Amino acid sequence: KPLSEPTIEEVAKGITDGTFKKIIVMTGAGISVAAGIPDFRTPGTGLYYNLQKYDLPFPEAVFEIRYFQQRPEPFYALAKEMWPSNYKPTITHHFIRLLEEKGVLLRNYTQNIDTLERQAGISPELLVEAHGSFGTTRCIKCKREVDQEWLREKVFRDEIPKCSDCEGLIKPDITFFGENLPERFHTLTHPDFQQCDLLFVIGTSLEVYPFASLVDRPKSDVPRVLINMEEVGPFESTKKDDCRDVKVLGDCQASVRELAKLLHWESELDELVHQ
Ligand code: OAD
């Protein structure tokens, strides 16, 4: 029977008693803040509040494909700062991995490009990197794949990386505004959200579409759990209350640890964190 006004305790019970076994986790930059990577939109610390030195017409321009084609320098300067290197997955990443180990993770849809999901050991089949990642690199014109190390060297030498075949700009396969999301996103969302029996939404402002629209895709009786610093999207108090929604506000790392306690998974989570 559908849960009406579920609590986080009831959700946890539903996971342990096998009611929920096709869980989708939607994630965003908030889950990697504890790893030392700033998010985009938190006033003050978010990346979009700290781009003054690049002299952009508006912050998102740094990730806009048309702007990049005209003026790629700000993106490469930023890429040099953001290049994934010594960051470690957080408790939240390990928790998602634990859902996989328990056999209840249907998919993790992430907007993050930091590849910390892969580092945490989440299987590639269970992962949709909806905004791409730094993992592969190609020419934006002829689409030829280019060695990532070559790109890194160029970027760190402040050179503009261009294709040796067609002179097109070389860019990591992160999805810019104005570009299509990866094929996987489009092929998997429909069957996934038909089956999904529980949705977690963690560390995202739900500001960017089409990703944000996924939150409306589960069937109408499927509980949706927001674990975030603030209320976002359909979870905002000003919106009509949806009686299947649960909100756990505050730092997601602490909330996820609490949830692991309710599930009696704390020591297994610690093992993953410390391995
Ligand atoms: P945002 O920066 O828009 O949102 C991050 C959310 O996480 C906000 O609601 C924060 O309040 C919350 N948050 C921050 N720290 C947290 C913490 N410790 N615990 C819990 N919540 C926390 O980031 P995204 O929603 O991921 O796209 O942004 C979506 C897309 O916008 C990105 O993928 C990127 C960007 O433009 C592209 O570049 C294509």
Automatic annotation (TrEMBL):
Cofactor(s) the record lists: Zn(2+)
GO molecular function, one term: NAD+ binding
Domain Deacetylase sirtuin-type: 1-266
Keywords of this entry: Metal-binding, NAD, Transferase, Zinc
Active site per database record: H131 (proton acceptor)
Domain of life: Eukaryota
Binding site for Zn(2+): C139, C142, C163, C166
Gene Ontology cellular-component terms listed: nucleus
Family in the record: Belongs to the sirtuin family.
Protein name: Deacetylase sirtuin-type domain-containing protein
Span of the entire protein shown here: 58 to 332 of 399
